[in-house]
Prior knowledge:
Structural class: alpha+beta
Strand content: 5-15%
Order of helices and strands: EHHEH
Largest sheet: 2 strands, antiparallel
Helix content: 25-40%
Amino acid sequence: MWMHLGVTDSERxxxxxxxxNTLLKVLKEHRFSVDGxxxxxxxxxxxxxxxxxxxxFELPLTPIKY
Length: 66
């Protein structure tokens, strides 16, 4: 699933560092839009965050309540 997130610079850094609490906060506050057609080319991602790997989140299986 691809999502566009509305985050601050500090939240972006926390997300790229794998901070699950920041991700859950952004989701609970509805600061996202789901877009299945989004794609960021690998070369663009590498320029934005050189030397970093993909960030995977292990979220709880229970749905987020709004």
